[in-house]
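Researcher: Going back to the complex we discussed earlier. I've cleaned up the inputs and rechecked each line, so this should be the final set. Can you rerun the prediction on the complete assembly and write out the structure?
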Amino acid sequence: MARKLTNSNAHFEKAVTRLPLGVASNFRYWGEGRTIYVKHGRGARITDIDDNVYVDYRMGYGPAILGYAHPEVDRAAREGMEVGGVFALSTEREFTVANRISKMVPAAELVRFSNSGTEAVMAGLRVARAYTGKDDYVILEGGYHGLFDAAMWFTPMDKWSQVGDPEVRPYSEGIPVSTRSFAHFVQANDANQLEDVLKRHAHRIACMLIEPIMGNCLGIAAEPEYLRAARGLCDKHGVVLLIDEVKTGFRVARGGVQELYGIKADLCTFAKAVGNGYPISVLAGRADIMRKIGQGVAHGGTYTAHSVSLAAAEKTLQILDETDALERIADYGTRLRAGMRATLSARGIAHSFVGHPSMSGLYFAQQAPRNYRDWKGSDYSFYDAMAQVLHDEGVLCEPDSREPWFVSAAHDAECLSDTLRAFEIAVDATLKSTGASRKVRA
Ligand SMILES: Cc1ncc(COP(=O)(O)O)c(C=O)c1O
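Model: Rerun complete. Updated structure for the full complex:
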């Protein structure tokens, strides 16, 4: 079934006259003839303006953890609206939500709110720098931490020749070259390399910025012993461990990746799932570090802790904490993997799943990747081709294999059977269109 995108394409023609790329965020532009405009989302499904309905596995890149237009969260948000917005003053609910976060995440001794993941990580880096009196930071190849200059250096692995180290480049034009010198890149799961970098440069390094399940890189997961080693090395070298839980927070466990691994961050950041899509993010951490805020470190903003977002966060976190939503999400993800595995194995296609069942990466090679360089060894072009057919068949995954599949509490048995039917069609169509040479035998 090839979808009709007549209305989306017509709208794109109009939108591009007023909005760069016809969208509000570069990542929403999927090319001419392929950029989709949404009419509405309900539960785990999105309807576009051509009335194509999709089972969604992007979920806004993770926020809609309970599903789109969740009645209880939206009711809470409407009550939050009655409070009046923002006042350049605080409300009592900030304390209530901060308490819930501290209960769920023991490392969150003190809490501050922001509006986006970018803002929270940016604030975290600032606090770490202020606390340590140092400027540099360690970052993992393949890590993504938002759209601020310091975090916008990366290793474009698609350009890597698989010989030597990949080049470090800015994500964007307009990033001052001077910001490059602060970042020290390491590969995931190589504690020796981390130790070497810290031994040589710790006198300049304020923090290690790490997303232990890389939500923008297939869901590549830190091995528990690597994370334990990183924790120990940071302590030894006076480096703040800043765990970015913008995607994993309140998703992979009630206490996020820190609960899953039994590890405590010095500072940690949350966004996405906090408010089920309402804009709110969190910087939290050790009291002695967080107390730098107000004692030298500036933090705040006009829209911080908006009454609508805060009320949505209170309800979302209550549901995630007090119901079995996260268990149901993980169970769906496990069944989704099993169904996909059956289709792929029946066709002899080498594959593995990476990350957590609530945010799975599908990787076309037998051995799961341990770091971003491994991605280069997978048959990712098979994924790219398959994703286009999945869209036509009513399953919305990211067109790029590096984005995991996000599951929400609204994904139900019908979503699963629709997805697995479409998946089988998409795999077969891709095998046919890309030819037998593409087929990687298990
Ligand atoms: C791990 C991580 N950190 C930070 C960000 C930036 O968050 P935002 O897009 O809300 O600014 C993202 C966004 O996807 C992310 O995945």
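Model: Worth noting: The mean pLDDT is 96.
Researcher: Good, that matches what I expected from the previous run.
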